[in-house]
Design brief:
By secondary structure, this protein is α+β, with helices and mostly antiparallel strands. The protein has helices spanning 23-27, 38-45, 64-73, 102-110, 126-140, 162-173, 182-185, 249-254, 264-285, 306-315, 329-332, 339-348, and strands at residues 5-12, 18-19, 49-50, 87-92, 117-122, 146-153, 194-201, 211-220, 229-230, 233-235, 241-243, 261-262, 295-298, 358-365, 370-378.
Length: 379
């Protein structure tokens, strides 16, 4: 088995950062009415700016595939060219289409002029880590000498007002208040667009920071907990999900079936507890000493969870001091599958890393509560 190193990282964030006050200028007003929930949600999530692949007419400026390709192109230099690339592994929640695969579309955007191996991981926040793991294992096994792994999202196109106006109109006809359900509106004020890319190789790069990948672990708790975050379906009273394919096409619009939704009560109950449980399992499995971890990058969807996550980790004997934590949520927003890559790229290029230090990555996924973590060594 080969050692595997992250030798370069790249980020692409579309257009200019957008402030809280500008959000509805880009996403639009549902039922031509300013959101009453927006201020509360933003106050809790602590996000101050984010990025949208949209203009102020709610028109797209980039596809997800284009955002992803831009991040990949940032990896190319005199040491690693398009001709050198062997494997493209992409993870996203928000692919531009159901088929073809997201990685296939990104390969088309890159104009490499050659055939390569591609892999697409779908799901929610862990799809980026799944893509990372595919590349890691391929290089480790010697199947490939390098792999480009990308996490990306283009959530903004899912959140524009026109996607919800049919539901609001339906509520009017039913003589209900024409306000979309909180489980749908909640995520309109949480999510952001962007992509982060990692280059994995079987040797570290000379005269620059490289990160050796020690391990990547995954844990699912779907056997214990029902779905919390979902799209293309509707949650039933017994917790089951009814597929979009089992609704009529009229109901797709009236009930915003394809909107991304979240059960915030389940989120509060399980997201931190199961995250700490899974990380403790990895520390025991690899016989790790918490005191020897130098940097922690934990993806969180909202600043609301920041204090609670530290407390839950501490309950499991993982009491990391605040100076070791690295966050960029408030500046870039929640970019789902891309968040951990984008934060890692910032840390790699910050000048803060020193040879021999350990970097811990932690990623939760509230879909049906799945978690991943990875340990990296600076070299």
């Amino acid at each position: 088995m080969n050692d595997v190193f992250i030798t370069k990282a790249s980020t692409y964030l579309p257009n200019d950062p957008i402030s809280n006050d500008e959000m509805e200028s880009y996403l639009g007003l549902v039922n031509n009415t300013p959101s009453k929930a927006r201020a509360l949600i933003l106050r809790n999530n602590k996000i101050t700016t984010r990025y949208y692949a949209l203009d102020k007419n709610n028109k797209p400026t980039h596809s997800n595939a284009q955002i992803t390709a831009k991040a990949v192109e940032g990896l190319f230099d005199q040491n690693f060219t398009k001709a050198d690339m062997e494997l493209l592994s992409c993870g996203t929640t928000s692919a531009d289409q159901i088929q073809p695969s997201h990685a296939s579309m990104v390969h088309g955007e890159l104009n490499l002029g050659k055939s390569i191996e591609i892999n697409t991981s779908t799901g929610l926040c862990n799809s980026g880590m799944n893509a990372f793991n595919y590349g890691f294992l391929s290089v480790k096994a010697g199947v490939r000498q390098n792999a480009v792994c990308v996490g990306s999202e283009r959530f903004s196109a899912w959140m524009t007002a026109d996607k919800f106006n049919h539901e609001a109109e339906n509520l009017k006809q039913l003589e209900e208040r024409p306000i979309i359900a909180f489980k749908r509106e909640f995520l309109r004020w949480m999510l952001s667009d962007g992509a982060g890319a990692l280059l994995l190789q079987n040797k570290p790069r000379e005269n620059s920071i490289s990160l050796k990948v020690e391990f990547i672990d995954f844990y699912s708790y779907a056997h214990e907990v029902e779905a919390c975050m979902y799209s293309g379906c509707e949650k039933q009273e017994n917790g089951d999900l009814k597929s979009w394919a089992d609704y009529s096409s009229n109901e797709w619009l009236k009930q915003s079936i394809f909107a991304l939704k979240q059960d915030t009560k389940l989120l509060d109950e399980y997201i931190l507890v199961k995250g700490a449980e899974s990380l403790r399992t990895s520390f025991d499995k690899h016989n790790l000493d918490p005191e020897k971890i130098d940097h922690i990058i934990a993806h969180i969807s909202s600043g609301y969870f920041k204090e609670g996550l530290k407390e839950e980790f501490a309950k499991k004997g993982l009491d990391f001091p605040w100076e070791k934590w690295y966050y960029n949520l408030s500046e870039v927003g929640n970019i789902g599958a891309g968040s951990i890559f984008i934060a890692l790229e910032e840390l790699m290029n910050s000048g803060k890393l020193k040879k021999g230090e350990k970097v811990l990555l932690c990623v939760p996924e509230s879909g049906r509560f799945a978690y991943s973590c990875a340990l990296l060594t600076v070299c």
